[in-house]
Design goal:
The protein has about 500 residues and is α+β, with helices and mostly antiparallel strands. The chain has eleven helices and 27 strands. The strands form seven sheets. Strands 1, 2, 7, 8, 9, 10, 18 and 19 form an eight-stranded mixed sheet that branches. α1 runs parallel beside α4. The longest helix has 25 residues.
């Protein structure tokens, strides 16, 4: 059967766009379907963490990200009064105390990131079809068929695989029958560009209140409301709803005029039991939803796409090693579970009441300890994530994500990101001869030295994960095992 695409990606948000680009780069033909007529202007997320920033830099997007990041860092400092990171709005995570302080995220609003990724994906030849809504899905041993309603009516499209990148209320997830267990919301966050017309003089100072949290300033009003969960989370946020929330949180009546963008989110936390059912897979919010506390969601979803893209493309090409596609769930599901775990903890630490106030005081004191500060920093950035690979390794970096290494090749000083734009894995080593059978499928770079303590050679997968690493006496047998495991000859 002739398919319309190798892979249909449902959803043209940042995760879907990056996934489609990764698939195209690795030789597969993706097709992106998006129900919206134009990219959403809603500023749901404000930045990407260090791992996602490095993933984009590996594809040559680093300079464009940096241009957005310079302004975004200043905006963030103005909003929060601090350039430090936070855990449950305790702003004490100090970049200077981290093990790798130079590995930082980038501040960029989600609509701007979508523009950047859409230009990148379409530049690679990815087709994006807007105003296409998926209404049905069926799969067999070789094909997934979608029923789609587009500008010219209902029709069907087929592909070898479908990936749902269509958000927390994923249609693909529902139609495929993925289990999506988790916990119900305990609070609702409401944020709006708004003016307080009456009652501002009676409001308490911004911050924690007896029944929630209040933030307000020129042109902005937000509540963290533990006393109400809206029945219809799809309905627009109205001035009346926001006023009622302020009353619940503070006990003060105000009159509000909404002047611009609004956002309503809860802290419900759910995760698909598996990220793959047959030929249908999930990534991003379609696979996991959680509180936005700490800004981890976009980083998490983009790294899903980076992990899945090259594996799914290998499956499409027919040269994937056994179990490669299943390793997507095996590697990414535990990472998602850890994010759900820490965001639940942050919601608990935000809850109103004297007992939580006391707990926050104790927790804040603990964050002054450098080792605690580093642990929380690694947790929130994702830098502590390490994949459990199906072969032994004695090197501590194996399974972790690689920074943009600096190394010497002959007399030149170079960066790893120069060799990753084409999407191939990269081996940096003084002697690349053991990997010669993989030349053409792995970028082989002979180096004199790598500017990273204890690292003389390294094999980096397309998603940035370190598949093998060596010291002064590298383990050649281990290198060949890693090459066979991920990149069948």
């Amino acid at each position: 059967m002739t398919h319309d695409a190798d892979v249909i990606v449902v959803g043209a948000g940042p995760v879907g766009l990056l996934l489609a680009a990764e698939l195209r780069l690795a030789g597969a033909v993706p097709l992106v379907l998006e129900r919206l007529a134009a990219p959403s202007p809603q500023r749901k997320a404000r930045g990407v963490g260090p791992l996602a920033a490095e993933a984009l830099a590996r594809r040559g997007l680093g300079e464009r990200l940096a241009a957005h990041g310079a302004a975004g860092t200043a905006d963030k400092a103005r909003d929060h009064g601090s350039e430090k990171g936070h855990f449950s709005a305790i702003f004490k995570i100090d970049p200077a105390l981290q093990d790798e302080p130079d590995r930082r995220g980038v501040w960029i609003w989600q609509p701007e990131l979508e523009v950047l990724l859409a230009e990148y994906a379409t530049g690679l030849g990815v087709e994006i079809r807007r105003e296409h809504t998926v209404t049905g899905l069926a799969q067999d041993d070789g094909t997934v068929t979608l029923t789609v309603v587009g500008p010219h009516g209902e029709h069907r499209l087929s592909a070898g695989h479908v990936v749902g990148c269509d958000g927390g209320r994923s249609t693909v997830r529902r139609l495929t029958g993925f289990a999506f267990p988790g916990t119900a919301p305990t609070m609702t966050t409401r944020r709006a560009e708004a003016e307080i017309l009456e009652g501002a003089d009676r409001l308490p100072p911004a911050g924690r209140q007896p029944r929630g949290i209040l933030h307000y300033g020129p042109g902005m009003l937000a509540t963290f409301d533990y006393g109400d969960t809206p029945e219809d989370r799809e309905a627009p946020l109205t001035a009346e709803e926001l006023q009622n929330s302020v009353r619940r949180v503070t006990g003060v009546d105000v009159t509000v005029a909404i002047t611009g963008e609004t956002l309503r989110v809860t802290d419900h936390a759910r995760q698909a039991a598996t990220y793959r059912r047959g030929r249908v897979l999930l990534a991003g919010d379609a696979a996991h939803v959680h509180s936005p506390m700490g800004g981890q969601g976009l980083n998490l979803g983009l790294m899903d796409a980076a992990n899945l893209g090259w594996k799914l493309a290998a499956d499409v090409r027919g040269d994937a090693p056994p179990g490669l596609l299943d390793s997507y769930t095996g590697e990414r599901h535990p990472v998602g579970a850890r994010v759900l775990h820490n965001t639940r903890a942050q919601s608990a630490l935000l809850a109103p009441g004297p007992h939580t106030d006391a707990l926050r005081d104790v927790f804040s004191d603990l964050m002054d300890l450098p080792e605690v500060n580093r642990r929380l920093g690694d947790m929130m950035s994702g830098l502590a994530d390490a994949y459990d690979f199906p072969y032994p390794s004695t090197h501590p970096l194996v399974g972790r994500h690689c920074p943009d290494l600096t190394f010497k090749a002959g007399t030149r000083e170079e960066h790893l990101s120069r060799y990753t734009r084409g999407g191939l894995p990269v081996l940096l080593a003084p002697d690349v001869r053991p990997a010669e059978p993989w030349r053409g499928r792995v970028e082989l770079v002979q180096v004199e030295s790598i500017a990273y303590d204890g690292l003389d050679a390294v094999l980096v997968r397309p998603d940035g994960a370190i598949a093998w690493a060596g010291g002064a006496e590298p383990d050649v047998e281990g290198l060949e095992t890693a090459l066979r495991t991920w990149f069948s000859r």
